[in-house]
Amino acid sequence: MLSKGLKRKREEEEEKEPLAVDAWWLDPGHAAVAQAPQAVASSSLFDLSVLKLHHSLQQSEPDLRHLVLVVNTLRRIQASMAPAAALPPVPSPPAAPSVADNLLASSDAALSASMASLLEDLSHIEGLSQAPQPLADEGPPGRSIGGAAPSLGALDLLGPATGCLLDDGLEGLFEDIDTSMYDNELWAPASEGLKPGPEDGPGKEEAPELDEAELDYLMDVLVGTQALERPPGPGR
Amino acid sequence: MGLSFFSKNLPIQEGQPWALTTPADIISTVEFNHTGELLATGDKGGRVVIFQREPESKNAPHSQGEYDVYSTFQSHEPEFDYLKSLEIEEKINKIKWLPQQNAAHSLLSTNDKTIKLWKITERDKRPEGYNLKDEEGKLKDLSTVTSLQVPVLKPMDLMVEVSPRRIFANGHTYHINSISVNSDCETYMSADDLRINLWHLAITDRSFNIVDIKPANMEDLTEVITASEFHPHHCNLFVYSSSKGSLRLCDMRAAALCDKHSKLFEEPEDPSNRSFFSEIISSVSDVKFSHSGRYMLTRDYLTVKVWDLNMEARPIETYQVHDYLRSKLCSLYENDCIFDKFECAWNGSDSVIMTGAYNNFFRMFDRNTKRDVTLEASRESSKPRAVLKPRRVCVGGKRRRDDISVDSLDFTKKILHTAWHPAENIIAIAATNNLYIFQDKVNSDMH
Predict the structure, then answer these.
(1) N or C: which end of chain B has fewer CB within 10 A?
(2) 10 Å Cβ neighbour count for B74?
(3) Model pTM?
(4) In angstroms, what separates the C-alpha of B226 from chain A's closest C-alpha?
(5) 3 state SS of B239
(6) pLDDT averaged over chain B?
């Protein structure tokens, strides 16, 4: 059924299934059950948290407490993963990271746009002004810049390990996006978790390796998500 | 422990097997009134059921002080917010009774967005003998009226009438998690994830914002309000808890906006227990002042803690509710159980504290003797008048006959809501859609 060490698919609808009998996750031998030492977070824990974050954001009205706790936990996990020194050499071409970031950011953008616009809706209703993030983000390094939409700080964490977002479990989230782009070697598991992350400054919009069709597609997605945003409020 | 409880299993809200449970029947809050005569429950379907304790009578010694249904009404309906295209759940998050000031009873009930003040009155007499109307209320033909009579009050079957007196709407953008009536009996507060508002019970069109922790940029949001309560005696003091495990005591006399706390209660993280889930399990799910007003009780995922208002550095007592779950946190994170919000309660004399757990277990801790007990709320183990048997969860090693192993705990059976009678040893336990009321007959007085 479910072998140890692999994360299992999680239905979007399934909230809390009865757990009485299925006790595989209580098996002390399971990688996820043993307390992960602070130094090394299992990537499955990271993936799980990302999944939870996406699931939370997908709700029409996210449970703020749940969201905030998951985001903070994700930050802790990311913090422990970042300084991991023993990374195998990156086999994919050097342009792959920036491509990954851009594509990630664009697929991210829809989610972050919906979250940001939701929060903005809330602000507007109260009469408070809250301008969306300017596109050129002057935030501290580590924040994802490639996206065209204001991004909730939390979603920046999705920068590094991009491969995980495109695993099977997340197919449902991107149903309306043409996924033919992803069916190429760039998304081989070998590239998972090896991205240096967006700390190398503002993301580059251009990626020489991309052909024109792919660039066009990218632009469509970026423009499409911008259309979802509300007009900015009066000042910040 | 000195307490031996026997059960009074109420036939109300008979639970069906888990698979057939109607979600609307799930009890979402339980609250005794100030005398303990009335017990209110709210459920996911927006209904409120009030139970009343029957007076003890010599004629029927077996029905000493049992709780029977007094009134049932629909408090909240599902609503649709057209502006945001969102449905607002009718689930009752909290009920708080107002102190009784006349023959009527009043309570506040709230869902995620709207608080309502309900007045409960009894009618056991009705006037008879009107001159102009007949018994059915139809106007009489005046020519048939030959003499005048004074209408008299005749007894009738007791009728309990409930009416909404005030509706406090549009005060909250985020989800309301607590309400608390002030000791001044004129104001109350409501708290959502980011803000706390102060209302006057008679004024519905405005409220005062007294706490606002919303950051200017929502990207910077790292902490939310999880619970809040007014001090039982000092009408200017209130406390609110956060998702990071801190408590803030605020004084409304100090400033109009109580963003600056008077006291901050926070326990430093234990380095030996540090994990990725440290913050989640430190999130306070409930905070309750003691009846004396000197202490606070908090519940986080694994413990209940007693805090002295005079000591901010750490709690004075910590009790482990189910420490055997500490090694299972990753799995509990995966299935979201780690986010469950358990409530806690003091007994009338502040000597015993109670909280719920999984597998329909609930725990009690005696602060004086330092003894604790685990009990189960389930039909199988609570025949009426039977004494509840202490349960035990074994973690491996020696296992006694009736022990439950950690691996066979049912995490879908959670006791999130419990309440303790203000004066006597009577407790109300909500187990999904069943309400259990347990009473200690051996030691009826507080100890």
Answers:
(1) N
(2) 11
(3) 0.71
(4) 8
(5) strand
(6) 90
Q: Which residues contact A83 (CB under 8 A, 6 or more apart)?
A: none
Query: In whole angstroms, what is the distance from residue A49 CA to residue A73 CA?
Result: 8
Task: Mutation target for B interface from A24, A35, A81: give the one with most B CBs within 10 A.
Answer: A35
Strands (E), chain A: none
Which chain B positions have a beta carbon within 8 Å of A19's beta carbon?
Answer: 335, 410-412
- Residue B23 structure tokens: 């979600």
Distance of CA B247 to the CA centre of its chain: 19
- Say if residue B384's pLDDT is above 80: no
Please judge whether A69 and B339 are an interchain contact, meaning their C-beta atoms are less than 8 angstroms apart: yes
| Chain B residues near residue A133 by CB distance under 8 angstroms | 219
Task: Report which of B243, B327, B326 is spatially closest to residue B280, judged by C-alpha positions.
Answer: B243
* Rg of chain B in Å (alpha carbons): 24
pLDDT for B17: 39
Model confidence at A40, pLDDT cuts 50, 70, 90, reads low
Q: How far is B185 from B193, CA to CA, in rounded Å?
A: 25
A chain contacts of residue B220, beta-carbon cutoff 8 Å: 153
Other residues' Cβ atoms within 10 Å of the Cβ of residue A223: 10
- Residue ranges and CATH numbers for the domains of chain B are 3-11+23-129+150-440 (2.130.10.10)
Listed by start position, the domains of chain A span 41-80
Question: What distances in angstroms separate CA B154 from CA A208, B35, B129, one per listed residue?
Answer: 93, 29, 10
A96-118 pLDDT tens trace: 333 333 433 443 444 444 455 54
Number of C-alpha atoms within 13 angstroms, CB side, residue B220?
9
pLDDT of residue B347: 97
A233 contact partners, CB below 8 Å, separation of at least 6: A120, A123, A124, A129, A130, A131
Q: What's the pLDDT band for A235 if we cut at 50, 70, 90?
A: very low
Under 8 Å CB pairs connecting chains A and B tally to 119
Q: Which residue of A has its CA nearest to B278?
A: A73
Test A33 with B330 for CB contact under 8 angstroms: yes
Which of chain A's residues have a Cβ under 8 Å away from the Cβ of B330? 25, 32-36, 45
The ipTM assigned to this model is 0.89
Q: How far apart are CA B77 and CA B46, in angstroms?
A: 6
In B, which residues are within 8 Å of A125 by CB distance? 83-84, 173
- Inspect the interface and report whether the beta carbons of B224 and A125 lie closer than 8 Å: no
Span A118-166, pLDDT tens digits: 444 444 444 333 333 333 333 343 333 333 333 344 444 443 344 444 4
Closest CA to A91 of A192, A235, A223, A20: A192
A73 closest CB neighbour out of B86, B274, B279? B279
**Averaged pLDDT, B421-433:** 94
Smallest Cβ–Cβ distance between A25 and the set B216, B279, B334 belongs to: B334
Write the residue in B222, B275, B407 that is nearest to A72 by C-beta: B222
**Which residues in chain A have their CB less than 8 angstroms from residue B406's CB?**
26
- On whether the CB atoms of residues B46 and B74 are closer than 8 A, the answer is yes
Strands B393-394 and B404-405: parallel
Residue in A61, A112, A155 to test binding to B, most B beta-carbons within 10 Å:
A61
Contact B328 A26 (CB under 8 A): yes
Higher pLDDT, B78 or B5: B78
Q: Give the DSSP H/E element, type plus range, for residue B97.
A: strand B94-97
B339 and A66 in contact by Cβ < 8 A?
A: yes
> How close is the nearest chain B Cα to the Cα of A38, in Å?
6
